[in-house]
Amino acid sequence: MNSRIIYQNDEGGISIIVPADCGLTIEEIAAKDVPQGKAYHIVDVSEIPTDRTFRGAWTWQ
Amino acid sequence: MGDSMSTIINATTTNGVVIQPDNSGSLVLQTNSGTTALTIDTSQRAAFVAGTAALPAITTTGDTNTGIFFSAADTIDFAEGGTACGQFDSSANFKFNSGYGSVATAYGCRAWVNFNGIGTVAIRGSGNVSSITDVGVGIYTVNFTNAMPDTNYSTCYGANSYNDTNINIVIAIRGSSTINWGGVNVKTTSAIQIACSNTGNTNSLVDVFDLNVAIFR
Within chain B, how many helices (H) and strands (E) appear? Predict the structure, then answer.
């Protein structure tokens, strides 16, 4: 699955959900694994930086 | 019909041989001593004798000490070569002898995952895991597809290397360590959050190349 789910976490950063091959759709995984009440976005994995040097400073616009 | 040693029933039509009770009772097959060997009741269920490990109730021609038997109420047993090798007991525990030396309860892995925590974070393989959450450097949440019955499960983890350098890595349930990894402690029936630290660099959080988590309950 080349999709990722991103949301703003309670620690001020961005959490990125990496789906497993579990038989659920990306929407079903989002409904289950994104904390309740959090807005989220489904993006392509290519939109996620691979350089994690400043991982803690990532934001979503 | 048959010869002096046995009685043979031949089918006289292409429908084969049909044996049918002449009333509403069960069909019972007995041995020559009158012992019931098989009963087919009016609900079409076949009931066998209980059997033993040496003489399983359900077996196969030419290997009659291998098969299924029933050692007690609500219990299903399996035998190989006349020796018990497996059992579902009356509490639904699955027991088998897989080098244990005896038939013992098998406690299965309830969830597992192997993933790459650097670069493009990705799952290599998993079971009963719906996703992992990359929370930040060295912090990952493993989300279960099917929840655990409670939070008393055991978590095992191991890591292989970090940026291909030889450093010591400590992995722990986040918030349960004396090392300052934040005041968050996520261990629920549906997820567990772990943190990875480099013990060679003031215990700072680090991403891990090859992270393995297994849950037992």
Answer: 0, 18
